[in-house]
Design a protein that fits this description.
globular, Deoxyribonuclease I, Chain A
Length: 314
């Protein structure tokens, strides 16, 4: 019985240690760690087993393991309640991965009309998808654009209601992460990045994924928003490091941090994970967050309304 109990307890303990330490023992761990919320829920099973069989040492380790995993995961289910002063206007941000341009144009345009975003960050936008969206009236609603559309999974773009000046493209492993600085009516200049690093599906893609996340601008100085398909969750060390620089995850801040954004039902035979995010400068208030449905793509669009700090001329 002792062997059975320890065989149940130790894998969960090892998971908790690796997740907390941010280590990557094998490249497959990059994908596996995204499922930490499910492992945290299942960690109660070895605890109950050890208690039921009165294996007290194993039970103590299982209890610590569950506590470590719960501490990492549960805060995402509760809003943080921290609302910085933000009476300098609003910024509404919508981000969507179009799955090689296949995302339903009509439904996306309905989202644009109903949510009324100031900024739309798109990933996997192709020239054909761009033409369909603009033919459906996207440029009339959001006339300013940073266009980095390309055939395949590598394209991205940013549409804006307000004037936008393109910043140097982040391009690693052919994945194009468009950047632009918006001239907001409040007086703020806000950098926006359409985030889409390589997907770490194979070992040779992990370095590209790491480089793509490390290349994202850290928070500080100019206001910034990072929005899109990060191919990573809050259980990845690189994402936590990015947040530690001075961003807040809109889903986590509003208690929606466990709402899955990928895959949409029927696309992949795996449980849903939260890899699409909107990261806002910590000086911004996060007023709302939502996850929406878009047919013909494996990702669910994410939306947030952000409050801006009062503009002060330097």
């Amino acid at each position: 019985m002792s062997l059975l109990v320890w065989s149940a307890v130790l894998p969960f303990a090892a998971w908790a240690v690796l997740r907390a330490g941010g280590w990557t023992p094998v490249w497959q761990w990059v994908a596996l760690v995204a499922f930490t919320p499910y492992v945290a829920a299942a960690s109660a099973i070895p605890l109950l087993l050890a208690l039921g069989l009165r294996r007290w040492t194993a039970a103590a380790l299982a209890l610590v393991t569950s506590a470590v995993l719960a501490t990492a995961v549960l805060p995402r289910h509760f809003g943080d309640g921290d609302r910085p002063a933000a009476d300098g206007g609003r910024l509404r941000v919508l981000a969507a991965n179009l799955a090689v341009g296949a995302g339903d144009t009509d439904v996306l345009m309905k989202l644009v009309r109903s949510l009324d975003p100031d900024v739309l960050a798109l990933q996997e936008i192709t020239p054909a998808a761009r033409e369909r969206l603009e033919g459906a009236g996207l440029r009339e609603r959001m006339p300013h654009v940073v266009d980095r559309a390309v055939d395949g999974v590598w394209g991205s773009g940013i549409y804006s209601k307000h004037p936008i000046a393109e910043r140097p493209l982040i391009e690693l492993g052919r994945f194009r992460q468009a950047r632009g600085v918006i001239e907001h009516p409040s007086g703020h200049e806000i950098e926006v990045v359409s985030v889409h690093p390589c997907a770490p599906r194979y070992g040779d893609r992990v370095p590209c994924w790491e480089q793509g996340l490390r290349a994202l601008p850290r928070a500080g100085g100019q206001l910034r928003v990072l929005a899109g398909d990060f191919n990573a969750t809050l259980d990845h060390r690189l994402v936590r490091d990015l947040l530690d620089s001075g961003y807040r995850d809109a889903a986590d801040a509003t208690g929606h941090g466990l709402t899955a954004t990928w895959p949409q039902q029927g696309w992949e035979p795996v449980p849903g994970v939260t890899i699409d995010h909107i990261f806002a400068d910590s000086r911004m208030a996060i007023r709302t967050f939502g996850v929406h449905h878009l047919p013909d793509t494996d990702h669910r669009p994410v939306f947030s309304e952000l409050g801006l700090p009062r503009f002060t001329k330097r």
